Amino acid sequence: MQETISISNGSSVGQRVQYASQVLLKGDDLEAYLHCMSSVFAENIHYIDPVHELRGKSAVVEMLRKYVPRLKNEPFEFSLVHDGNNCVIWRWVLNMKIRYTPFRFTIHGLVHAELEGEKIVRQREYYDPMESIGVIPIIGALYKLALKLG
């Protein structure tokens, strides 16, 4: 039996992120997804991942506006790990095709979001952006060799 996910005015930050990621992300309405995610960000959010460091809700929402449409038809898994009063933690797995190539890759991510009240003030996303090139012959082998050599 599949769990039905919904949100209401009293929903926690974790529940709203889960709804956005498992329901709205799969839908055709990017604006609904962005609106839901925007509702959990503080105006002064500090967002960090391996390739971005952003400050402010508008910068984070614009980054999502740019990257989220790429995920629309790709397998994406979300799991809420912890939904507390001070922090929310979730995992995600993305399986995506590299544009203009026959190669697919999987990236595993972990997000730690610190809360003040009902808003995310700091969000740190952990993933290996180089995980994607590991599937490309020669380049992937060289990358893995470089990691082993330190």
Provide the descriptors you would attach to this structure in a database record:
Nuclear Transport Factor 2, Chain: A, 4 helices, globular, alpha+beta
What would your notes on this structure say?
By secondary structure, the chain is α+β, with helices and mostly antiparallel strands. It has a single domain, classed as Nuclear Transport Factor 2, Chain: A (Roll), CATH 3.10.450. The protein has four helices and six strands. Strand 5 and strand 6 form a beta hairpin. Helix 1 (about 15-25) runs antiparallel to helix 2 and helix 2 runs antiparallel to helix 3 (about 55-65). The N and C termini lie far apart (about 45 Å).
Quick overview:
The chain is an alpha+beta fold.
Number of strands: 6
Strand % is 35-45%
User: Could you say what the CATH architecture is?
Assistant: Roll
Described by the principal axes of the CA atoms, the overall outline is globular
| Element pattern in H and E | HHEEHEEEEH
Largest sheet: 6 strands, mixed
Tally of separate helices = 4
- Mean of all residue-level pLDDT scores: 87
Topology diagram in text:
Elements: H1 13-24, H2 30-38, E1 41-49, E2 52-55, H3 57-67, E3 76-83, E4 87-97, E5 104-116, E6 119-126, H4 139-149
Parallel strand pairs: 1-6
Antiparallel strand pairs: 1-2, 3-4, 4-5, 5-6
